[in-house]
Every structure is written in C-alpha cells, then in structure tokens.
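Protein in question kept underneath.
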Amino acid sequence: MTATPGGPLSAAAPEGGALVSRPKGAGQPRRQPPLQSGARIAVLILVLGYLLLPLLAMLEFSTRGDYGSRNLNSFAAILDNQNLVDGIVTSLEIAVLTVFGMLLLLVPTMVWTVVRVPRMRRVIEFLCLLPLAIPAIVIVVGIAPIYRFMGQNLGAIGASPLTLAFIDIILVLPFAYRAIDSSLRSIDTATLADAARSLGAGWPRTIFQVIVPNIRGGVLSASVLAIALVLGEFTISSLLSFNTLQVVIYLLGKRDPFVAVAVAFAALVFAFVLLIVITRVAGGDRRARPEAEEAAA
C-alpha cells in the first residue's frame, strides 16, 4: 500500500515498493568462479583417471591374442579352471557369512548403546576401530594356534575356509561401524525405540522392524565394504593356507597371467556394479521418505 499526503490509498507496487523490494539478482542462479569450476573438473578427471586407467589397462592385457589380435579367451577360461571356480564360490560364501555376522554383532550393539548406555559409545567406537591399529600379520600370528586347534579337533568344520569369516568380521568392524554410526546419527534413534517399546514391541522387533529400515543406507554401505574386503583379502587366507579368490589368483598368475588379470578385472567390476546398485537403492529410499512424510501429512 502507498499513499500521498491528502490523497487516497493505492495498491502496492508489483515489486513490493522500496521497503520490501527484491534484492538485486534474487532468483537468478549463482555462477561459480571460473577458477573454482576448473578446479572441480580437474579433480574429477584425476579421480576418474585413477579409477579407470588401471581397469582399462587390465582389460587391454587380458584380451591380448596372437599377432596383435583381441579375444575373450582369458575370460572364457575362468569357468574351465575348477580351482578358480572353487575359490570364487568360497570367497562369496565367506562374504555372505561375514555380512550376516557383522550386522548381527554390530547393529544390535550400536542401537542398544545409543538407546540405553550412551556413555559406552566411545568405548564401543574404540573397540571397533582397534583392528585398524593391528597389522594383519600380527592377527594371523595370534590366531593361528586357534585355527590349528580347530583343524585338529573339529574335523571338517574346523578346517573349512568358511571359518575365515570370524577374522573378516573383525577386520571389517572399523569401516562398518563408521557407515552405520553415520546413519544412526541422522535419525532420533532413542525416540523411535521408546515409541516402539511403548506400543508393545520387544527389542528384536524394535531393532529389526523399526530402527533398521531407517538406517538402511548405512547397513547397505557396511555390507558393500564387507564384501569388498572379503573379495580382496589375501594375507590372512594365504598364511593360513586357505584357497580363497585372491590366493587362487596369485597362484594362477604364475602359470597364466592373462586369466589371472581377467579374474581380477571381473572382481573389480563386480564390486563397482554392486556399489552402484546399492547406492541407487539407498538413494531411492532417501527420496521416497520425504514423499511418504508429505503424503502422511
């Protein structure tokens, strides 16, 4: 509204008048300085080069043929090598056991700590991060007598390479803890748990039906890290004389390096694809949550 002395009131100007006028440049996209945009592009190129160049080199080496030709014989030979197939199956089984064991150990412990004993949060964090400070060779030296006892007294179960899942669960704790902890900090875990408990839900139902769906992104990230660690672990399985994927690749590389590189390339591509799929699933869950809240409102 505007007015002049002695005159009638009139409607306000479309731009809101002098007191409420829009700031200059409002509503226009902010342009980034050329130097900042160039730095981001340069960093992106360096990261992509660091990730893609080794993969391209592995693909080029594994597809070499006679007289400069290209073929996929190395990839076709993967299924013809029974030791290699057994190593792949063994590593995948260890990965599955590691993921389930890590989640069953870590998720209830972290939720209980946040809800009931928040003072113990630092202690749990210290214990989970401790494997980062212990070299793998030290872990093997300390745990080798236990595996020797298991192999001598527990028969086929104690001598099975699947028992490596116990060590892999310990090794993956630092990475899985960070992934799950970031998701727990993004929600009000205590309020959700108290609400579920007040409605009559027990602790197992509260954790797996109320808390876990809200931290699905962190759980999926922790699972990817566990799978990547198992597929790339070599030191412990080699020193304990178990034929996992990396051990078989190492032994195969002495006889047929082309097939060994082909298997390593396939394992890396599998890890990348798995990471992309899980990122899409977790991202879709985050986008669907605000829409569900708006619909409920």
Observations:
- DSSP finds 13 helices and no strands in the chain.
- Residues 12-19, 290-297 have pLDDT under 50 and may be disordered.
